[in-house]
Amino acid sequence: QVQLVESGGGLVQAGGSLRLSCAASGRTNSMYAMGWFRQSPGKEREVVGGISWSGDRTDYADSVKGRFTISRDNAKNTVYLQMDSLKPEDTAVYYCAATPAASGSWYYLGAISYRYWGQGTQVTVDS
Hints:
This protein is mainly beta. Helices cover 0% and strands 51% of the residues. The strands form two sheets. Strands 2, 4, 5, 6, 9, 10 and 11 form a seven-stranded mixed sheet that branches. The chain has a four-stranded antiparallel sheet with strand order 1-3-8-7, with no helix packed on it. A hairpin with a 6-residue loop joins strand 5 (46-51) and strand 6.
């Protein structure tokens, strides 16, 4: 089992930045691909992006490309989501997710691929 805890959410003005963290604990001695997702009221959960266990491969949803950056520090069992140039439409609950990866270079963008989920952290962007 892997437990995930997100932090760093809050209220920010449009155009501002936030950095979310996701700390993993439990059985973290395997290769885990990680992802970030978000869900706004009345909408389905959507992918923000994913990162391989090695950290050298990432991919993002078109809506956040060029503004959001995912990184990880495996020594700290932590994944980060740097969010810049935030827009009101980025307002959502943000979730991190983890899943065992067959290769250190694999990442996933589909929610169905992920086995473990955090409880989420609220991000509100005020216009």
